[in-house]
Design brief:
This protein has one domain. It is built from four helices and no strands. Helix 2 runs parallel beside helix 4. The longest helix is centred in the first third of the chain and has 42 residues. The protein is elongated.
Length: about 120
């Protein structure tokens, strides 16, 4: 067999790994969005305002709602019934920590790929 076919198979395998990885990521994102909506519906029935921990959770899950929002489905990403500054601090911290982790993982993968060459 020629070497070209071995390369094309490895490229196909790498492409399929990326497609499967993207499908898993989108499935997780839709799952997080669905779960966040279920929790938000349940917690909105509570008359107690959202605090720091709920803000942290909603902020951390907010980036994962993006695919659901692109599919034109409404997702609750912010609680209007909150206790003010503590909720907003938790929400901001959650968004920033999630972004730091996601972008950090992407950077580490790109950095490792660069040194592998």
């Amino acid at each position: 067999m020629p070497i070209i076919s071995d390369r094309s198979q490895s490229y196909r395998f790498a492409f399929m790994r990326k497609v499967v990885g993207l499908a898993i990521l989108l499935t997780l994102a839709f799952g997080f969005s669905w779960g966040l909506n279920q929790v938000a519906r349940h917690l909105d029935q509570d008359s107690k305002p959202a605090g720091f921990s709920r803000g942290l959770a909603q902020g951390a899950l907010m980036p994962f709602t993006w695919p659901t929002l692109l599919a034109a489905q409404d997702v609750v990403i912010y609680s209007n019934n909150n206790n003010g500054i503590p909720y907003k601090l938790g929400y901001t911290l959650g968004v920033n920590l999630c972004g730091f982790l996601l972008l950090g993982l992407i950077y580490l993968r790109l950095d490792a790929a660069r040194y592998r060459k």
